[in-house]
Amino acid sequence: MFFKKKEIEEIKREAVTLEKDFIRNLLPIRYSNSNKGTYGTVLNIAGCVSYVGAAYLSSISALKVGAGLVCLAGENATLATIAANTPDIIFKHLGTSEKGTIPKDGAKILNDISKYKVVSIGCGLSMERLARDFVLKFLKNNLTSEKPFVIDADAINALASTDNMPIPVNSVITPHPLELSRIMDMDVAEIQEDRVKAASTAADYLNCIVLLKGKETVIAAPMDNVAYINPTGNSALAKGGSGDVLTGMISGFLAQGLKVLDATLLAAYLHGKAGELASNSLTEYSVLASNLLNHIPMAIRDLQGY
To answer: Phi, psi (5° rounding) for residue 226?
Structure first.
């Protein structure tokens, strides 16, 4: 367990609720004279044979918010399944293990990530040992990279398994309360009792932006005076795969050049709004994570005021 009660001065955060006008100003500009390179390439490291959907959702959602190109890197059979279901992304095969996950040696294939604008890692990788070892080796290899990293799901669980967490310097992690509890020496109930404090403390200790999922998602940056509360969303988002869509949205905005905090705030707001709009026709009971993909454009249009 990395998180210990270190002696640092606790910074009191002002909790600020995100407002539509503020978020609207974060939308990246689209240029008439542009190409896919203008809007950046995402390297999305995701999926295994048991969680193919996570890799798909986190890849397509990055494109839905405007990224120019997504390269999905993952386990061989997983990529073959996704390739049969979409023509919209490209692939980088990292091999396979007997468990159907990325092998540890997959990190050697990703020894050069210079051509990618942003890296997202963790969606559906599984908690198998080999996948965990791959994550830790890959992140350690890129510890000093200033490239934005979005760290989610099983990559967070991999970090929680070691005392020396290799979190690149320009990262956002996107845990739900149980995942955050694995990193911090706190119970889930304690986290939920004061979500702003939990997210803010984690941001300070880990020196990265923390997005704590749940009702009124909290976004905190390290050593900041403010923590942001996202007002959008409803129970429609309480479905498997919803978080994978959010990861892709953050990485898609980062690919377009937004700062890590701005991309995280914008994606959280639009992700929640997509859930609300989807539930208008499908009800909060029946929205699937895949339905969110088709409501991302509607959420953007709503934000633009059209």
So the answer is: -130, 140
Contacts of 107 (CB under 8 A, 6+ apart): 134, 137, 138, 141
The angle subtended at Cα 40 by Cα 266 and Cα 127, nearest 5°, is 70
User: Residue 9: its pLDDT value, please?
Assistant: 55
| CA dist., res. 160 & res. 22, Å (int) | 34
- How far apart are the C-alpha atoms of 65 and 28, rounded to whole Å? 10
Query: Looking at the chain, how many residues does it have?
Result: 306
Alpha helices in the chain (DSSP H): 20-24, 52-64, 76-83, 106-109, 129-141, 153-160, 177-183, 188-193, 195-206, 242-255, 260-286, 289-304
- pLDDT per residue as tens digits for the range 39-74: 999 999 999 999 999 999 999 999 999 999 999 999
Find, among 74, 41, 39, 40, the residue nearest to 55 by Cα: 74
Q: Is 31 exposed, middle or buried (0-12, 13-18, 19+ CB in 10 A)?
A: exposed
Q: Smallest Cα–Cα separation from 150: which of 256, 60, 250, 230?
A: 250
Residue 153 one-letter amino acid: A
Half-sphere exposure of 227 (CA within 13 A, CB side): 26
Q: HSE-up of 68 (CA within 13 Å, CB side)?
A: 18
In the structure encoding, which two tokens stand for residue 136, read together? 């830790």
- Contact between 270 and 293 under an 8 Å Cβ cutoff? The reply is no
Query: How many of the other CB atoms lie within 10 Å of CB of 141?
Result: 16
Q: What is the pTM of this model?
A: 0.96
